[in-house]
Design a protein that fits this description.
82 residues; alpha+beta; two-stranded antiparallel sheet; 4 strands; 20% helix
């Protein structure tokens, strides 16, 4: 498919047809890569917990893995006065 480069403020861009975005499962964000003088556009999938294990191990090594809330708290509220 041939498309034109368009001016967008001080940048330039291309318009990608909706059908192509849907076929590639692109929604809001993309990952841009350059390979052999070609621009590769891939859907960006967030992985919010991707590196949690690494950070948990670092916390343990620094003794930063202590409970913030007392583990003996009465979450069932059985002994609470209302």
């Amino acid at each position: 498919m041939r498309t034109s480069i368009v001016q967008i403020g001080n940048s330039k861009g291309i318009r990608i047809p909706k059908a192509i975005l849907e076929q590639c499962h692109i929604e809001k964000e993309v990952q841009l890569e350059i390979e052999n003088n070609a621009i590769i556009i891939k859907p960006y999938k967030r992985k919010p917990r991707k590196e949690w294990e690494k950070y948990f191990k670092k916390m343990r090594a620094n003794n930063d893995d202590k409970l913030i809330i007392d583990d003996n708290i009465d979450i069932e509220m059985e002994n609470w006065d209302w």
